Amino acid sequence: MDPHEKQRKHATRGHRWNQEMQSHGYKTGSYQSDSWHDHGPQISSQAKWVPRAQASTSTEALEISERADNEGEFQQEVPEESFHFARSTFAQAQLRATFYPKFENEKSDQEVRTKMIEVVQSGKGVLEVSLKHSGSLFMYSGDHGGAFAKNSYGNLYTAVGVFVLASTFQEAWGAQASQKQKEFNNHLETSRLCICMELVTAVLGDHGQRPKQDYVVVTAVADLKGKPHFYATPDLIMFCRQWRLPTNHVWLFSSRKSAASFFTAYDALCEEGTATSVSHVLDEISEISVPASKSHAEVQGEILEGLVARIVSPQSTERVQKVLEEFPLADCEDSSKLLLQKGLRTICAQHMISEKEQIKALLQSIGQDMCSDWSDWTSEGSNSTFLPKFLKATPLDHVTRKLQEMLRFLQDRKMRVRYPCHVKGYDAKEQKTHYRMTIHVLDDSVFRKYQTAMRRNPELWPLYRGFFMDVYLMHGSQNKNLVTALSDKFSKNSLSSDEQSNSLADESEDLMLKLKFLPYKIRTFLIRNGLSILFQNGFPAYRKYYLRQMGNWNTSSDKEQQLDRLLTEWAEYITGKGRGKGINSHMYLSEVEPFLEEFAKRSLWNKSLIGYTGPAGKTEELLKELTEEADVSEQQAPPVAKETVDGKGIIIFFPGIPGCGKSALCEELFKDPGDLANGRTIRSLMGDLVKGKYWSLLAKQHQQGPATGVTLADKNAPNVEVWKTVGDISKSTSAIGVPVVPDSGGTEYNPFSLEELALFMYRVLQRTNHPGNLDKKSPNAGYVLLMFYNLYSGKDRKEFEDTLRGAFGYLVKFPVLKANRPPLPSSIQEVLSEGLELFKRHAGKHGKLDSTKGSFSQKWSMWEKQLREVLNGNAAYFKEVQVPFEEVFQNLRQQLVAIAKGEICMQTSTEGEERFFKSITYAALSLPANEITNTLQQLAATNMELEKYFLGRMVIVNSAHVTLAHKHAHGVAAVAAFSEARGAVVSVKLKALLFSSKMCALEVQIMENERGIYTKNEWPHVTVWTAQGTKAKEANLLPQMVTRGHASHVDFTPVIVSGVVELL
């Protein structure tokens, strides 16, 4: 099209639009666009940069700016301290909107929990927890500053956001709303602030529940004058209360006890938590509770997406209290009279013809006090040539230089990031072009890679979510005075900007967790996200998908079975109703909610499963009913299935630490497999002799051998990634994977104790000519052992074993240390503690850099020498405490033979995925089952009545415990109170046996103890046996039944056993 003809059409459209909008009372300007065609709106941006002089259209402005850009030559690098005016293009950038950097924890969630508790205990931080509302990210920087969604602007999402924000002001300020909107916009733009909100509406797609109201809740305030700085929670609350903006519900946990109780409470609530139940529990166990401006249950509903936990400044507790006193919540009496004439849902419903019509109607209804600048909604087309020009331009300030540095890094590494950009305006007289650019990260792995780069180069600015910037490119040398002034300012301020925002400049600021609830995940992950799989691939693929998800979440076996039935029924319902045609996932709740409502009506436990509280949200009544029905004594054991291993191969692998005896055991098994070789070929592959990828080679070797062969993977397998690899190899070759681990009591944070670590180090330092060069001649042998030990950090022994059993169905443990052994010498404890602390410092500064390099190399050298002296000086101790090798070998071979013969049952698992958190139902004292069994057998042998009673009944107890608190009977907070006592050993006295025809239990007494541990049950007992159809909780009634003559009571000489506090 001829440029003059294009300009004439632009002007004509602009004239029509000006007339239309002037009739609505808007001011119009000369910056025209054809983006909304004949009826398309375009309002003057009224921002600093608008087209003038030669440029009367955005298209012509773009053409002029591109010509100007191409007139000069670009240099790749320019020293900060000097500007060369031979260069024709200068750049000044400013951030318009940004949200917190996406956090990706390097360590497991369990390790992050542990670290958070440690930080709180040390006084370096406070644990802050807030509700996660289920909506979309919306950011607002003022009328001219812009409205933004996560990775876009100028669309329905941002129009809806501005509308809801305007409605919020109307509701909060009433008659003053118009004036307050102007003041608010002016404050944001002059202070360079961006308000980040969760936008929760019913018109932008379904999440876990359609909200009762359309609303926003402020989650962050970003100061964008330099490097983005986010307001601390006290400042955010103060800011929001000054402007009467909605804030979230926030809880603070400032002691180790309360922080540990929080995580225990979450584990108890994770499979059934709703907004009301979760809020009540956190109110009870936190030091400070800051209620939300609007209750989640009232505005969104009971289905709660989750919680966000993070570490904040230790001063937060005191500052929050002060803010709450000085800035109480304010009410507006006349708000209901001045709300916008039409609601969001009405407007969107009346303009369903197109998204553009909806946007236009929404912006018109808001009014110019809140939104007079529509330029973001009328821009069209993307400028693909902008980014190279910006990166080559001379930066005029520190912010611009740092943003260029970030973008160059992303470009050079070819990371998956898009940079859509639009021209906002062109000043031909000054030869300045105003661009608005989005930094859109396409893959979450980019954030992880960038975080790694930041650890190597702390000068890099973070990569933010919701990342938008305005850039002004100045062409030619006409503005020499302006450029000189800016360069002077740049040189003065270039060193100050970064340092000013590092208020919490340690690893604590990166500690953050998202903790979601099952009722929400049922609707979103299992139903909504599975729709395409169900309709495209059929039910078997869908079932595999949802079972895999439940396995990832560590869903309890009971819930897993219930969900399997629910989702099977859902699949039949929706495929039958739709006759094989899929449904719109955008509005999926239209089908799901009626189905779930009918499902919930069938039983109380169905209601609990899906978080259904009825139309009126009667959460308290549901909790009361659940309490009355709860079985407060027993948990069902995980399902156990006998599975034959006939016709299957076996892959034996070792999640351990160097020095545990792995290679020696593999060598002896290969030479003397015993019955393990019955009908099977034994193969062994030693990792230290393999060049290249060990596990690929092992898979190939196992496939080439007989299908029923036994492969010994003689290589340490220390992490979940390796376990998954073994699982994949096992599945692809129809084999079973058998993890073999050294037995250990472990520590609170590691599945291996310091005793084992010391012994393994000692063994390594006695080696000579080791194929992997890890022996007495290795200068950093101790460091290598510490590195392996820390690979397991964050998992206690139970979690470690449960993860392996859950993934493979088997777990073989071989003995390492004798039961009756002297304690670890203090000299060894000290040298190990020093090494672990040095490792922590080294890893924090240098990552995986070898200990012979880096700033701690001399300290490592001294420590390695000290380690050898201490361990060799205690040679007699190590010889005394370790189990003889022959005994270890016989024990291991016996277990492996039993598995090969099918004599050991395989525990069922779900898809072999790692499981992070287990659901907690009650706190208990776990008692040694063998001692309980011995007591019962002795009673039966010495008492004829009991001998007759136990005849034909179970006298062997597989597990035994005394319930301390149950979440349904005593409340989640009561269970969480035992979190700090986990692992404590308490003496328990067995006193009497009470029994009836349907059940029997041991009466017990918890002995007085330093931790003050006692049971909340009126009658402390251990349930021994119940008849089929009898609930374990009915054992609580045995004392009353004895009184009424319906049960018997037999006293005996008390037996004292040791119990361990556990959360089950």
Automatic annotation (TrEMBL):
GO BP, sorted A to Z: tRNA splicing, via endonucleolytic cleavage and ligation
What is the name attached to this protein's record? tRNA ligase phosphodiesterase domain-containing protein
Span list, region Disordered: 1-51
One example of the protein's molecular function in GO is: ATP binding
InterPro entries the record matches = tRNA_lig_PDEase, tRNA_ligase_1
Positions with biased composition (Basic residues): 1-16
Q: Which domain of life is it from?
A: Eukaryota
Domain tRNA ligase phosphodiesterase: residue ranges: 909-1051
